[in-house]
Amino acid sequence: MTNTVNAADTGGATGAGAPAGGADLRLESITKRFGDYLAVDDLDLRVPAGRFFALLGPSGCGKTTTLRMIAGLEHPTRGRILIGDEDVTATRAHQRNVNTVFQNYALFPHLSILENVAFGLRRRRVADAEARAREALALVELDHLSARRPAQLSGGQQQRVALARAVVNRPHVLLLDEPLGALDMKLRRQMQTELKTIQHEVGLTFIHVTHDQEEAMTMADTVAVMNAGRIEQIGPPEELYDLPRTAFVANFLGKSNLFTAQVSGSTGDWLELGFGPHLTRLPAARAVQSNGQVIAGIRPEKIVAVRPGEPGPGEHGWTKVSGGRVLSTSYTGVSTEYTVDVPGAGEFEVFSQNLRSEVFAEGAEVDLWWDERNVFGLPGDSDTEAGVEEV
Amino acid sequence: MSARATDDADDAASAADAAGPAGSAGAVGTTTAGPAGKPGGNAQERSPEELREHRRRGRVGMMLVVPGLLFAVAFFAVPVFSLLAMSLYTRPEGAAIGVYEPGLEFGTYAEVLSLYWEAFLRSFGFALIATIAALLIGYPMAYLVAVRLRGKPLLQGLLLVLIIAPFFSSFILRTQSWRLILSDEGVVVGFLKAVAILPEDGRLTATAFAVVCGLTYNFLPFMTLPIYANLERMDLRLIEAGGDLYASPFETFRKVTLPLSMPGVLAGTLLTFIPASGDYVNAVLLGNNQNTTMIGQVIDSRFFRAVDYPQASALSFVLMFAILILVTLYVRRFGTKELV
After folding, report:
1. Does the model's ipTM exceed the 0.90 cut?
2. Could you tell me the residue range of the domain that residue A292 belongs to?
3. Which of A83, B43, B47, B222 has CA 20 to 30 A from A140's CA?
4. Nearest residue in A to B250, CA atom
5. What is the pLDDT of residues A352-377, one digit of tens each?
């Protein structure tokens, strides 16, 4: 864990009188069943105080159920939930020092923006509720709209009100349930940055549920990838992306070329792999399994395509796969995405940054090159299609 | 609020300022000089096609309104007017019973008010109590079906049918059966006597209590259904949001659910109060002839027994007018125009 934001650093910034910053959140073997359906399966999780934590997964993976259990809107079938040192498993939503930014914002349509934000403070009989609500609205730059009704605001503004309404209570844990899902792309980007800034300012523990891997990676300092009620892998976004430990993570978080290979030997810290007629290597530390059949993976942007016979980008430590043929080309401006068929090894996705104006046509012959330090190894029995197109 | 309004006005003013110079420079009309050759142009400029479309829509709208308008004139405006006229008729000297001639006898109003003010007060009192009782019974029913059973359409449908089912049997019959329920030998009276709420010689039939029971029962669906329709549309995530923001279930109800269902409550109370205050079947069947007389009974007897058409008309008119005033005051006070 590289990020070392902690509650002590940021607690001072949250203002006097408010409950101190965030608190650790612990889920201990949480299981949730709805009838026969197992939504969350024996989940263990620990989120240190002050983290921006993302729960990432396709719809139906149990991430929203997990969030609702933390909020107290659902109760686990089994397991314990702790906030700080307090076991809150048996408490109800209104007794927990946790607030949620709902997916559709759930602003109260009959109350003004100011009263929406002050709602939680008033329920807790906070003395200067109105002044604090105004401060929170100023934080999201909407103080000039405090007398309006939610229906009079745009989607992005409503989203910010929902955030202010949750943040103003200085909860130990703040939950975000796909809060940007309803916004258009441009607004999303803008809100992602704002959310991160605000989290930094108030120093609360944020738990952000999303199915958008890009959003999770941009915003969170720790990402947990969920699938079928379980957590597949936890770590900082760069680590998850660079070194996925399961095929699901490899495919769901960005794209991956996964191919079956045989470990043919090892030299020092390297494993030697054979796939079809080709050979490559990968660092032993990057392989989940170090003998027999494995699934090897390489990210599309880590592959360089060159004309047959032309020199590759490097000599030592680079793999060259020759005999490829371009099946399809998709030009996106910044880059070109190719599907390349390699006889005996299958199809490879290649993302090529458009450094030069040359673009390979369909049917062109290419050699593929990659730096062997970028290859990762997964268990040989992995389903190479797991997590593909499930978004 | 007023500060906000000023802000808006400022915004509008500055927007107008911004548009001003461009407009005066002639940039507005130049883009759309119509084919009809109207140069310059202004905000009202329309092409012939637009004008034709506008006229056509106007005609269609008019034609759709006509039948309803005719109906309202024939069966509402004309009767109200003739009711008003009838209430001012005079009785010629020595004329036979039931013979009146057109006149302007405003004295009839003073007469009926001094004679029957008690019945008026009682009617509104009964209607008010019945409305409150129906609200207390109907709201939880509506809440149960619309909120608690959300996502269970079968159970919801079943309970809705149960709420509406009484309408399938005769109004008179249902009211009659309340006499049975409240009869001296009945279970209710027996129980109330056993727990000593009712004295040994007490009874419920032919009392004001029985009349209010009948009113409440008969108008309950009119209270329940509008509230149900309102709650049924409510986003349940708002209730979750209330809980998430530290409101206990009761506080969430008081601060979120109830205010949001006010349009339904308003409609329900009006639909109950208005017909209940003019009702006379319940008073006839369940009341006595001393202290439960409602204004509907009085109008009935003035019209059919005493054949005093001006008095009956004046009473009807006063009733209409009083309801109009009460409802106006009520809507002014509790109106929920601001709700979205």
Report:
1. no
2. 255-379
3. A83
4. A94
5. 998 877 789 999 999 999 999 999 99
